[in-house]
Amino acid sequence: MYSIGDLSRRTGVKAPTIRYYEQMGLLEAPQRSEGNQRRFAKAELERLAFIRHARDLGLTINSIRQLIDLSGHADRPCADADRIAKEQLASVRDRIAKLQKLEEELERIATCCTGETIGDCYVIRALSNHSLCGHEH
Amino acid sequence: MYSIGDLSRRTGVKAPTIRYYEQMGLLEAPQRSEGNQRRFAKAELERLAFIRHARDLGLTINSIRQLIDLSGHADRPCADADRIAKEQLASVRDRIAKLQKLEEELERIATCCTGETIGDCYVIRALSNHSLCGHEH
DNA sequence: CTAATTGCTCTAGTGACTAGAGGTTCAAGA
DNA sequence: TCTTGAACCTCTAGTCACTAGAGCAATTAG
Ligand SMILES: [Zn+2]
Ligand SMILES: [Zn+2]
Ligand SMILES: [Zn+2]
Ligand SMILES: [Zn+2]
Protein backbone atom coordinates (compact mmCIF):
# COMPACT_ATOMS: atom_id res chain seq x y z
CA MET A 1 0.00 0.00 0.00
CA TYR A 2 1.38 3.33 -1.11
CA SER A 3 0.47 6.75 0.20
CA ILE A 4 -0.10 9.44 -2.41
CA GLY A 5 3.42 10.72 -1.72
CA ASP A 6 4.94 7.26 -2.32
CA LEU A 7 3.04 7.00 -5.59
CA SER A 8 4.17 10.48 -6.53
CA ARG A 9 7.84 9.67 -5.95
CA ARG A 10 7.62 6.38 -7.81
CA THR A 11 5.93 7.81 -10.90
CA GLY A 12 7.06 11.41 -10.94
CA VAL A 13 3.43 12.57 -10.99
CA LYS A 14 2.65 15.27 -8.43
CA ALA A 15 0.12 14.48 -5.72
CA PRO A 16 -2.45 17.12 -6.83
CA THR A 17 -2.26 15.67 -10.33
CA ILE A 18 -2.93 12.17 -9.00
CA ARG A 19 -6.01 13.49 -7.18
CA TYR A 20 -7.04 15.23 -10.39
CA TYR A 21 -6.79 11.99 -12.37
CA GLU A 22 -8.94 10.30 -9.76
CA GLN A 23 -11.50 13.09 -10.05
CA MET A 24 -11.47 12.74 -13.84
CA GLY A 25 -12.19 9.02 -13.53
CA LEU A 26 -8.82 7.80 -14.83
CA LEU A 27 -7.88 6.27 -11.51
CA GLU A 28 -10.44 4.44 -9.44
CA ALA A 29 -11.07 5.82 -5.99
CA PRO A 30 -8.45 4.05 -3.88
CA GLN A 31 -8.83 2.56 -0.43
CA ARG A 32 -8.49 4.92 2.50
CA SER A 33 -6.69 4.76 5.82
CA GLU A 34 -8.65 5.15 9.06
CA GLY A 35 -7.84 8.84 8.89
CA ASN A 36 -9.17 9.12 5.31
CA GLN A 37 -5.84 9.23 3.51
CA ARG A 38 -5.45 7.45 0.17
CA ARG A 39 -3.78 4.01 0.12
CA PHE A 40 -2.93 2.76 -3.35
CA ALA A 41 -2.32 -0.84 -4.41
CA LYS A 42 0.18 -1.91 -7.04
CA ALA A 43 -2.48 -2.03 -9.77
CA GLU A 44 -3.04 1.69 -9.33
CA LEU A 45 0.67 2.36 -9.64
CA GLU A 46 0.69 0.55 -12.96
CA ARG A 47 -2.37 2.33 -14.17
CA LEU A 48 -0.84 5.66 -13.23
CA ALA A 49 2.25 4.78 -15.23
CA PHE A 50 -0.01 4.01 -18.19
CA ILE A 51 -1.81 7.33 -17.81
CA ARG A 52 1.44 9.25 -17.51
CA HIS A 53 2.92 7.57 -20.55
CA ALA A 54 -0.18 8.32 -22.60
CA ARG A 55 -0.15 11.96 -21.44
CA ASP A 56 3.54 12.24 -22.32
CA LEU A 57 2.59 11.12 -25.81
CA GLY A 58 0.04 13.93 -25.93
CA LEU A 59 -3.17 11.93 -25.59
CA THR A 60 -6.08 13.76 -24.00
CA ILE A 61 -7.73 12.73 -20.75
CA ASN A 62 -10.74 11.66 -22.78
CA SER A 63 -8.74 9.42 -25.10
CA ILE A 64 -6.98 7.90 -22.12
CA ARG A 65 -10.30 7.19 -20.44
CA GLN A 66 -11.45 5.37 -23.57
CA LEU A 67 -8.24 3.35 -23.71
CA ILE A 68 -8.58 2.38 -20.06
CA ASP A 69 -12.15 1.29 -20.64
CA LEU A 70 -11.03 -0.77 -23.63
CA SER A 71 -8.15 -2.37 -21.77
CA GLY A 72 -10.63 -3.90 -19.37
CA HIS A 73 -12.02 -6.09 -22.18
CA ALA A 74 -9.14 -8.23 -23.36
CA ASP A 75 -11.30 -10.26 -25.73
CA ARG A 76 -12.77 -7.40 -27.76
CA PRO A 77 -11.28 -6.26 -31.06
CA CYS A 78 -8.67 -3.56 -30.74
CA ALA A 79 -9.77 -1.41 -33.67
CA ASP A 80 -10.86 1.43 -31.38
CA ALA A 81 -7.52 1.53 -29.61
CA ASP A 82 -5.68 1.52 -32.92
CA ARG A 83 -7.90 4.32 -34.19
CA ILE A 84 -7.19 6.50 -31.15
CA ALA A 85 -3.45 6.08 -31.69
CA LYS A 86 -3.73 6.86 -35.40
CA GLU A 87 -5.79 9.95 -34.73
CA GLN A 88 -3.21 11.18 -32.25
CA LEU A 89 -0.48 10.58 -34.81
CA ALA A 90 -2.42 12.56 -37.39
CA SER A 91 -2.98 15.38 -34.94
CA VAL A 92 0.72 15.53 -34.06
CA ARG A 93 1.66 15.62 -37.75
CA ASP A 94 -0.82 18.37 -38.34
CA ARG A 95 0.60 20.46 -35.53
CA ILE A 96 4.14 19.89 -36.79
CA ALA A 97 3.18 21.07 -40.27
CA LYS A 98 1.59 24.24 -38.89
CA LEU A 99 4.54 24.97 -36.65
CA GLN A 100 6.96 24.50 -39.53
CA LYS A 101 5.18 27.19 -41.50
CA LEU A 102 5.43 29.47 -38.50
CA GLU A 103 9.08 28.62 -38.13
CA GLU A 104 9.76 29.67 -41.68
CA GLU A 105 8.07 33.04 -41.28
CA LEU A 106 9.51 33.66 -37.85
CA GLU A 107 13.00 32.88 -39.02
CA ARG A 108 12.73 35.56 -41.65
CA ILE A 109 11.10 38.01 -39.27
CA ALA A 110 13.52 37.35 -36.42
CA THR A 111 16.74 37.38 -38.37
CA CYS A 112 16.24 40.00 -41.07
CA CYS A 113 16.16 43.10 -38.94
CA THR A 114 19.05 45.36 -39.80
CA GLY A 115 17.43 48.40 -38.27
CA GLU A 116 18.59 50.23 -35.22
CA THR A 117 15.37 51.78 -34.03
CA ILE A 118 11.75 50.76 -33.75
CA GLY A 119 11.02 53.13 -36.59
CA ASP A 120 12.76 50.92 -39.10
CA CYS A 121 12.58 47.57 -37.29
CA TYR A 122 11.79 44.71 -39.63
CA VAL A 123 10.00 42.81 -36.86
CA ILE A 124 7.46 45.56 -36.43
CA ARG A 125 7.11 46.08 -40.18
CA ALA A 126 6.60 42.39 -40.84
CA LEU A 127 3.94 42.10 -38.18
CA SER A 128 2.14 45.10 -39.59
CA ASN A 129 2.09 43.65 -43.05
CA HIS A 130 1.26 40.04 -43.76
CA SER A 131 1.97 40.49 -47.47
CA LEU A 132 5.67 40.31 -46.58
CA CYS A 133 5.02 36.70 -45.59
CA GLY A 134 5.70 33.80 -47.90
CA HIS A 135 2.40 32.05 -47.24
CA GLU A 136 -0.69 31.91 -45.07
CA HIS A 137 -0.61 30.73 -41.50
CA MET B 1 -16.02 54.88 -38.41
CA TYR B 2 -16.58 51.15 -38.21
CA SER B 3 -18.96 49.30 -35.97
CA ILE B 4 -17.60 46.22 -34.28
CA GLY B 5 -19.33 44.12 -36.93
CA ASP B 6 -17.68 46.08 -39.75
CA LEU B 7 -14.31 45.59 -38.11
CA SER B 8 -15.05 41.92 -37.63
CA ARG B 9 -15.91 41.42 -41.30
CA ARG B 10 -12.86 43.35 -42.48
CA THR B 11 -10.36 41.49 -40.32
CA GLY B 12 -11.97 38.10 -39.82
CA VAL B 13 -11.74 38.56 -36.04
CA LYS B 14 -14.98 37.79 -34.22
CA ALA B 15 -16.67 40.58 -32.30
CA PRO B 16 -16.28 38.96 -28.84
CA THR B 17 -12.58 38.53 -29.58
CA ILE B 18 -12.27 42.21 -30.47
CA ARG B 19 -13.89 43.11 -27.15
CA TYR B 20 -11.54 40.69 -25.45
CA TYR B 21 -8.49 42.37 -27.00
CA GLU B 22 -9.79 45.71 -25.80
CA GLN B 23 -10.22 44.30 -22.30
CA MET B 24 -6.67 42.92 -22.41
CA GLY B 25 -5.33 46.34 -23.32
CA LEU B 26 -4.25 45.49 -26.88
CA LEU B 27 -6.79 47.82 -28.42
CA GLU B 28 -7.47 51.18 -26.91
CA ALA B 29 -11.03 51.81 -25.81
CA PRO B 30 -12.68 53.16 -28.96
CA GLN B 31 -15.10 56.02 -29.32
CA ARG B 32 -18.74 55.26 -28.67
CA SER B 33 -21.98 56.14 -30.42
CA GLU B 34 -24.72 57.98 -28.57
CA GLY B 35 -26.16 54.58 -27.72
CA ASN B 36 -22.83 53.33 -26.33
CA GLN B 37 -21.83 51.19 -29.29
CA ARG B 38 -18.17 51.02 -30.31
CA ARG B 39 -17.06 53.12 -33.28
CA PHE B 40 -13.58 52.30 -34.52
CA ALA B 41 -11.29 54.52 -36.58
CA LYS B 42 -8.91 53.29 -39.25
CA ALA B 43 -5.97 53.24 -36.85
CA GLU B 44 -7.76 50.63 -34.79
CA LEU B 45 -8.38 48.52 -37.86
CA GLU B 46 -4.66 48.53 -38.58
CA ARG B 47 -3.78 47.74 -35.03
CA LEU B 48 -6.22 44.86 -35.03
CA ALA B 49 -4.59 43.49 -38.18
CA PHE B 50 -1.23 43.74 -36.40
CA ILE B 51 -2.58 41.89 -33.38
CA ARG B 52 -4.17 39.21 -35.51
CA HIS B 53 -1.02 38.68 -37.51
CA ALA B 54 1.06 38.38 -34.36
CA ARG B 55 -1.44 35.91 -32.87
CA ASP B 56 -1.39 33.88 -36.07
CA LEU B 57 2.37 33.64 -35.65
CA GLY B 58 1.81 32.29 -32.15
CA LEU B 59 2.83 35.31 -30.10
CA THR B 60 1.17 35.61 -26.72
CA ILE B 61 -1.06 38.48 -25.70
CA ASN B 62 1.69 39.65 -23.38
CA SER B 63 4.33 39.70 -26.09
CA ILE B 64 1.95 41.56 -28.36
CA ARG B 65 1.28 44.13 -25.67
CA GLN B 66 5.00 44.69 -25.35
CA LEU B 67 5.40 45.05 -29.11
CA ILE B 68 2.56 47.55 -29.26
CA ASP B 69 4.12 49.56 -26.45
CA LEU B 70 7.44 49.52 -28.30
CA SER B 71 5.92 50.52 -31.61
CA GLY B 72 4.78 53.76 -30.03
CA HIS B 73 8.40 54.86 -29.64
CA ALA B 74 9.85 55.00 -33.14
CA ASP B 75 13.17 56.46 -31.96
CA ARG B 76 14.07 53.81 -29.40
CA PRO B 77 16.36 50.90 -30.24
CA CYS B 78 14.55 47.83 -31.50
CA ALA B 79 16.53 45.23 -29.55
CA ASP B 80 13.53 44.33 -27.42
CA ALA B 81 11.33 43.73 -30.44
CA ASP B 82 14.00 41.60 -32.05
CA ARG B 83 14.41 39.62 -28.84
CA ILE B 84 10.67 38.88 -28.63
CA ALA B 85 10.70 37.56 -32.19
CA LYS B 86 13.80 35.44 -31.55
CA GLU B 87 12.31 33.99 -28.39
CA GLN B 88 9.16 33.06 -30.27
CA LEU B 89 11.23 31.40 -32.96
CA ALA B 90 13.12 29.43 -30.34
CA SER B 91 9.89 28.39 -28.68
CA VAL B 92 8.41 27.21 -31.98
CA ARG B 93 11.55 25.22 -32.75
CA ASP B 94 11.45 23.67 -29.34
CA ARG B 95 7.86 22.59 -29.80
CA ILE B 96 8.61 21.14 -33.23
CA ALA B 97 11.48 19.09 -31.81
CA LYS B 98 9.27 17.70 -29.05
CA LEU B 99 6.47 16.90 -31.45
CA GLN B 100 8.85 15.14 -33.81
CA LYS B 101 9.90 12.80 -31.02
CA LEU B 102 6.25 12.11 -30.31
CA GLU B 103 5.64 11.52 -33.99
CA GLU B 104 8.35 8.89 -34.09
CA GLU B 105 6.97 6.97 -31.13
CA LEU B 106 3.38 7.34 -32.22
CA GLU B 107 4.16 6.12 -35.68
CA ARG B 108 5.56 2.92 -34.24
CA ILE B 109 2.71 2.57 -31.76
CA ALA B 110 -0.02 3.34 -34.26
CA THR B 111 1.22 1.20 -37.13
CA CYS B 112 2.77 -1.85 -35.49
CA CYS B 113 -0.37 -3.46 -34.10
CA THR B 114 -0.93 -6.83 -35.73
CA GLY B 115 -3.22 -8.04 -32.97
CA GLU B 116 -6.89 -8.69 -33.27
CA THR B 117 -8.04 -8.17 -29.70
CA ILE B 118 -7.29 -5.77 -26.89
CA GLY B 119 -5.49 -8.61 -25.14
CA ASP B 120 -2.65 -8.54 -27.65
CA CYS B 121 -2.99 -4.99 -28.99
CA TYR B 122 0.36 -3.33 -29.47
CA VAL B 123 -1.11 0.11 -28.71
CA ILE B 124 -2.14 -0.96 -25.23
CA ARG B 125 1.13 -2.81 -24.63
CA ALA B 126 3.24 0.12 -25.77
CA LEU B 127 1.38 2.55 -23.53
CA SER B 128 1.80 0.20 -20.57
CA ASN B 129 5.51 -0.04 -21.11
CA HIS B 130 7.68 2.94 -21.92
CA SER B 131 10.75 0.70 -22.32
CA LEU B 132 9.39 -0.23 -25.75
CA CYS B 133 9.98 3.40 -26.73
CA GLY B 134 13.09 4.50 -28.55
CA HIS B 135 13.71 7.54 -26.35
CA GLU B 136 12.35 9.77 -23.64
CA HIS B 137 9.56 12.23 -24.27
C1' DC C 1 -43.38 52.53 -36.91
C1' DT C 2 -42.03 48.03 -36.64
C1' DA C 3 -39.24 44.12 -37.02
C1' DA C 4 -34.85 42.16 -37.77
C1' DT C 5 -30.33 42.66 -36.94
C1' DT C 6 -26.67 44.08 -34.39
C1' DG C 7 -24.76 45.61 -30.29
C1' DC C 8 -24.06 45.90 -25.06
C1' DT C 9 -22.38 43.74 -20.35
C1' DC C 10 -21.70 40.00 -17.49
C1' DT C 11 -20.95 35.26 -16.30
C1' DA C 12 -19.30 30.79 -17.04
C1' DG C 13 -17.00 27.12 -19.64
C1' DT C 14 -12.87 25.01 -22.17
C1' DG C 15 -8.06 21.49 -20.87
C1' DA C 16 -4.90 19.88 -17.80
C1' DC C 17 -3.29 21.04 -14.43
C1' DT C 18 -1.16 24.32 -10.37
C1' DA C 19 -1.31 27.19 -6.12
C1' DG C 20 -3.04 28.31 -1.87
C1' DA C 21 -5.98 28.33 2.39
C1' DG C 22 -7.21 26.16 6.35
C1' DG C 23 -7.56 22.13 8.64
C1' DT C 24 -6.36 16.85 9.88
C1' DT C 25 -3.49 12.65 10.18
C1' DC C 26 0.65 10.19 10.39
C1' DA C 27 5.34 8.61 11.83
C1' DA C 28 9.44 9.09 14.30
C1' DG C 29 12.13 10.60 18.06
C1' DA C 30 12.34 11.93 23.15
C1' DT D 1 3.12 8.43 25.82
C1' DC D 2 3.75 12.80 23.97
C1' DT D 3 5.23 16.05 20.68
C1' DT D 4 6.61 17.90 16.56
C1' DG D 5 6.87 18.39 11.78
C1' DA D 6 5.92 16.39 7.53
C1' DA D 7 2.49 14.72 4.78
C1' DC D 8 -2.24 14.58 3.78
C1' DC D 9 -7.24 16.16 3.24
C1' DT D 10 -10.97 19.20 0.70
C1' DC D 11 -12.24 23.20 -1.60
C1' DT D 12 -11.62 27.25 -4.34
C1' DA D 13 -9.49 29.94 -7.72
C1' DG D 14 -6.08 30.90 -11.29
C1' DT D 15 -3.70 29.83 -15.83
C1' DC D 16 -4.42 31.08 -21.56
C1' DA D 17 -6.99 32.79 -25.36
C1' DC D 18 -10.83 32.70 -26.35
C1' DT D 19 -16.17 31.02 -26.92
C1' DA D 20 -21.09 30.58 -25.65
C1' DG D 21 -25.07 32.21 -23.74
C1' DA D 22 -28.42 35.16 -21.10
C1' DG D 23 -30.90 39.19 -20.96
C1' DC D 24 -31.32 43.53 -22.51
C1' DA D 25 -30.59 48.05 -25.62
C1' DA D 26 -29.53 50.36 -30.04
C1' DT D 27 -29.56 50.64 -34.89
C1' DT D 28 -31.30 50.17 -39.54
C1' DA D 29 -34.21 48.78 -43.50
C1' DG D 30 -38.68 48.58 -45.24
ZN1 LIG E 1 14.49 45.32 -35.19
ZN1 LIG F 1 1.95 36.56 -42.24
ZN1 LIG G 1 -4.37 -3.06 -31.74
ZN1 LIG H 1 7.49 6.09 -24.11
Automatic annotation (TrEMBL), chains A, B:
InterPro entries: DNA-bd_dom_put_sf, MerR-type_HTH_dom, MerR_fam. This is Transcription regulator MerR DNA binding protein. Residues 1-70 form the HTH merR-type domain. PANTHER family: HEAVY METAL-DEPENDENT TRANSCRIPTIONAL REGULATOR HI_0293-RELATED (PTHR30204:SF94), REDOX-CYCLING DRUG-SENSING TRANSCRIPTIONAL ACTIVATOR SOXR (PTHR30204). Keywords: DNA-binding, Transcription, Transcription regulation. It comes from the Bacteria.
